[in-house]
Amino acid sequence: MYYQPQFALVTLHITYFEALIRWNHPERGLVSPAEFLPVAERTRLIIPLSTWVLHEACRQLAVWLARPGGQHLRIAVNISPGYLHNGLLQRDVEAALAAAGLPGNRLELELTESSLLLDPARANELLGPLQAQGVRLALDDFGTGYSSIRHLRDFQVSNLKLDRSFVRQICVDVLDRRLVTALTALGHELGASVVAEGAETMDAVACLREAGCDIVQGYALGRLMPAATATRILQHEGMMIE
Ligand code: C2E
Ligand code: MG
Ligand code: MG
Ligand code: MG
User: Fold this and answer.
1) What is the complex's ipTM, to 2 decimals?
2) EAL domain spans which residues (predicted)?
3) Rounded average pLDDT over 199-207
4) How far apart are the CA of 242 and the centre of ligand 3, in A?
């Protein structure tokens, strides 16, 4: 499990870590999830793998919450369509939270619109009971694929994650800037925080702040890292806050 920080845009403090999986292969090195997740979905290995991800991410967050600089953190976990719709999500989330001793509101599930679109009514049935326990939802890669604004009202999304295709050129492309500004206003109007993915330069971070985004994630501020590195960074933040 690797982790990438998400920063509050105003203070630049870390508010979340997103759990991102890698396969550490003996010959091929770190294999990207884009290569093996589709295979896991086809073979249904996605189920034990997702169960493991939830437990590991919750366990790690509990460690960070107990450390200086970590008390306000949340963990974001990606949920694939096959896993959402097999019906084990609620059982696994409840077990992972209980094993780690975490309240539901420390966990955010990142879903893409395509996994909600598969069967929106069923998705709402599966997610509603978890949301009632405080678990938060993020709409990942928002604005790509078959976006439906309706999802924003039907699913009570806590965080709207704007896809990085809107973010890459934000300082140079006036249309991207207007789009991000407008989508941010839309998210805020519906009670969501807006997260910009893929900020690769400090210029982009500044333009995102101007557009009104709340949270930023990207190589400019932090790449994905093993848990031990994240722990060191938090320790440093804790010292700065005190
Ligand atoms: P995602 O959830 O949209 O995750 C963000 C992806 O953008 C990550 O790719 C991250 O490394 C990358 N990224 C972050 N900042 C930047 C940047 O500034 N520039 C660029 N070019 N890229 C950036 P990654 O780790 O390869 O993950 C790809 C996708 O695989 C994720 O997209 C997510 O959909 C899926 N995934 C990753 N881990 C898991 C997991 O544990 N379970 C499930 N079900 N899916 C996962
Ligand atoms: Mg994600
Ligand atoms: Mg994304
Ligand atoms: Mg993505």
Assistant:
1) 0.97
2) 1-238
3) 97
4) 33
